[in-house]
Specification:
With 153 residues, the protein is mainly alpha-helical. It is built from 6 helices and no strands.
Length: 153
Amino acid sequence: MFIAILGIGAVAFNAALMLSDRAPGASRRIGGGIIARLSERLDAGGRPAQLANDPRLPTSDTLVHIGVWGVAMLFVGLAVWSWRGLAVGAAIVFACSAVIEIGQDRYTNTRTFELGDIVANGIGVALGTAVAAGSYLLWSGVAQLFGGGRPVT
């Protein structure tokens, strides 16, 4: 149950992060400096001249997209703990990431839709799915080896 809450929380966190310019004060109060820096990195696409010389920020937000959606998918994959659930969860998480990315044009003032961000989201979801699948296989192997535990179905 805890991992399920983490999975839902991760998707909600990502939505808040990607749409954070609508409530920047709340985002910064909840997440502190890291939210502010991530938000600035995500905004960089819309105002690169202001942020180009900030050494704290990576040169592209691609890694941010891959990381946040990969972690979200990993939590969802560990929560559902079935092969079918993993496939359905991956499709849902990717769809959520695409809807949020497309919605940035409409619901934020500083962010724009970028197809490359959806591709990065997909890579993150795929990596999170792969890590969850590896966890399933590892758990099933250990369960068979030692005769205990619940195999992944």
